[in-house]
Each structure stands twice: as structure tokens, then as C-alpha cells.
Amino acid sequence: MAGKEDKAVPQTRLGRASKVGRALGGQGLKLGGTAATNVLRTREGGKQALERRHLESAENMVKALGSLRGAAIKIGQLASFVDVELLPEEYREIYQKELGTLRSAAPPMSWKKVKKVLDSQWDRPIGRIFSEFDEEAVAAASIGQVHRSVLKDGTEVAVKIQYPDIADALRADVQNAALFLRLGKMIAPGLDAKAVAKELKARVLEELDYELEAQNQRRFARAYRGHPFIVVPGVFTELSRERVLVSEWIDGVGFDEVLEWNQADRDRFGEIVYRFAFGSIYHLNQLNADTHPGNYLAMDDGRVAFLDYGMTKRLSAEQMQMQIAAVTSVLDDDPEAFGKAMEDLGFIRDRENFNIELLMEHVKRVGGWYLNGRKTKITPKFVMRSIGALSDPRSQYFELTRTANLPADELLGRRMETGVLAVLGKLGASANWTRIGREWWFADKPSTPLGKEEWDYFEERGHSRRPMAAG
User: Fold this and answer.
1) Given pLDDT bands bounded at 50, 70 and 90, which one contains residue 177?
2) Fewest Cβ atoms nearer than 10 Å: which of 90, 100, 305, 368?
């Protein structure tokens, strides 16, 4: 990468919108033209031509999103973990494979630009801080890239560096939310576009402040330090700045390799993801909403490291109690209590004039995997059925969900749930997710060997087990 200047990131709203628009529009015409001419070809020749067109379309989408970075690439990262139901089944794998490259890779910036950012953040040369600093990035994501480095005392660290000018580009993306969400709907029609648009406008700019991210990560790292199967890298606060984050280096393998494991190991990995994502609400009153598996590393000792804390949310005891009231009403099959809970949370405004029974059925359809009380295998088809119940016009719940509200306090929680569900679907993970959840909601005894390890860990640190509803 050294010596090769990367192209500038488009910053204006018009420039970024037109780049994606050209990519999408051109591919749509090509695919349409190919389909029309297939009737003049042999069946095999037509199929090959369509496959080439779909592959070219997917590649161009990835190039357009990858070069834009920012909010645009986040749509692709999320979409790559949801089955592309709109496409013919034989072409879905092409899009999944190409879009999957966005999970952990984006065009890297040159060493010249990296050094410029570092020099602007620290008041001394990097040679006085590090004994080694790899010029090649080991990972590149939506708003920054990571370099492996070694401190003067020999400690290996990961240095995350924000792309120059990304702040202006992200602000342009927020204004262009509708355009990028059309892309998301084209790739993965099950996405709840309205919720994603609101989240982009309300939350994505917070990720620009790496000092805020360092605070979030430090809180998670403190809570999970020494945990038997969850690792959160420690943060070097004294070296972290607004555009640079320095944290502990973690060795491990990525999600694509995890997908090659046997099913028992994938089930264990899935349970760890579930326990971290949902359990953090109980143990920390805080959730990490960025659940795409580019942030997961499987370590040699069986632990899983969770990276990236740019999008988290603290939850009040009152909000947690209202959520547990909703969960309890579903488990008890009590529509009256459910209606009150949903009104208290802000999902509905007037339960007397709302079809509560249908809404409860809808919630069971979407969240049934962790509320049904039985062992459930999460498959890609299961994921699409659940997400489709949220936003597919063909769904019997479509009009219902459009008349309900989506409270601001619930946005990140719903994103986290959907992201975890998509991950479990890729893993094909099985568990009794309800029994695990009851450990947090109602202080039930640990339901799995991992649960016993986890509760031993927290109880040794003075955390008594009590229902989440207690606050």
C-alpha cells in the first residue's frame, strides 16, 4: 500500500448519491437487457449470460459502496448477512459472496494519509510512541482502518485510524439516507428501511468520536475482564484521540472460518454471541448495536473477542422494567398486559383502538425465536420470515406495523436483535434461547454449561443474580 495514493472519498451529497445511482441504474439496465435477449439463446447460454450479468452487478455494487465508505458501506455490511430473497435462488450466492467482502474490507488509505492523521492527533512523532508500526492496514471498515503496532514496552496494539474527510462524507450520507436505503431494499427487501433511516440520522455521526468509543469500550472491557468465554480488548486511553483509537491486539480467526466449523462448535459460538449481545443489557445496562460479524474473532482458547464500540446505548432501569413487562406478557399469553406494556414503551398510542391480538401474534412471529420456550434452530429462511413480517407488503402484519410507532429509545435495541438473528441464521445455531433469556429476565438457574461458567464469573465478583425486572 505504501507509495500508492488512494482515491479521495467523495464528500458532497450530490457526488456520493450520483455514484451509487449510476452503479445501480446501469446494472438494472444490463440485467433487463440480458433477460430480454435470453429468449433468442439456448437455455444453457442464457443462463450463463444471466449469471455473468448478476456477478458483474454484484461486483459493481461492492465497488461503489466500498469506495464511498461511511454509511453506504454499512448497508452492504448488513445486507450481506440477510438472504437476498428478491433474487432468483440460483443467483443469491453470487451477491452474498461479493457483498460479504464488505464485512471486513474496504479500499485502504495510503500510508501518507495515515501518517498525516496520526501526526495531527499526537503531539510527538510516532517513533517515540511505537517500536513498530505496520504501514499496511490489517482491516478496513466503514469509517476507519486498523494497523498492527507495537508500543515501546513491547505491547502489541491495534490502532484504528479514521479516514480523512469522512465526517463530511457521513453528513452527506445522512442526507442521502433514502437513496442508500433503496439500495438496501434492492439487495435485502426484508430490511426495515424506516427504522434504518432514522437510526442513520440519529446515531451514525456519533461514531466519528473515537474518544467516546474508547469510553464505551473501556466500560465493556472492565465488565468482561477475565470472563471465561467473552473478550473485550482493553483500551489505551492515554493514546486515544478523536480520530485515533488504540486498543489491545487480539489474535483470532474471522467469521468466514467459523462458518466452516462443525455444527456443535457453531452452536457454541452462537450462544456466546447471544449471551454477549443480550446479556450485556442485564450485566451493564448497555447494549452494543453493531453486531455484524466483522467485529467477531474466534480465539484459539475457545473464547470470542468482540470489537468495535462506536454504536452503544445505555438503558435506564425504568426502560428495562417496561421491556421485561412486555416479555412477561408474551410468555404468559396475556394480551391485556401486552397492550399496556407496548403502550408504556411507546410502540402504540391508543391500545383501545389497536388490534392488540394481531400485534401480539406479530411479536411472536418476529421475536418468537427467543420467546417460544423451546429449542429452536435459526436458519436463513427463518431469518427472512421474521424480518419479512416487519416490512414485507405481502405480510398480513404490514399495515399493522405501519400504524405502530418505533420509539427512539428502541431503535438500537431492535437493530441489535435483528443483527444477532441474522448471525445465528448464518451459523444455523440451535438453542433454547428462552431458557437462556430467563436467566436474566427472571433470575432462573443457568440453563447451559456456558451459563454456569458465566454466572460463576459474575457471582465471584459480587454480582448477585436477581430478576432484570427488579431494576
Assistant:
1) low
2) 90
